[in-house]
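Ticket #4471: structure export looks truncated?
Reporter: QA, pipeline team
Priority: medium

Steps to reproduce: submit the single chain below to the structure queue and open the exported record.
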Amino acid sequence: MASNDSRQEIRRRIHKRIRRRVAGTPERPRLAIFRSVNHIYAQVIDDQQGRTLASAASTEKDLRGKGGNVEGAKLIGAAVAQRAKEKGISKVVFDRGGYLYHGRIKALADAARAAGLEF
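Actual output as written to the record:
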């Protein structure tokens, strides 16, 4: 079984491969996901300007303690979609961050789609 260090290295390698093809533009920014054991983070990023346009995280005061499971990921997905819609963003490209499209990542993506983001 792989140790934590090699698992992280594998994820970073996969994420690099994804990032070669996925880039955010002002018209269609990138929805980037990061997950840890206890939390999940989502950012809508314009890579051309290097700016975060909207974000949501399970570490925020009103969402705290809800990121370590699928239900928490759904809340974060809906929150980031709503914040992006407020800024006039409706279409994004999805960056799963090197994680498998499964579990919390899939729940966040489905919730963001349900809240109105297109990808």
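Status: closed, not a bug. The export was complete when the record was re-opened. Leaving a note from the reviewer for reference: The chain has a mean pLDDT of 93.
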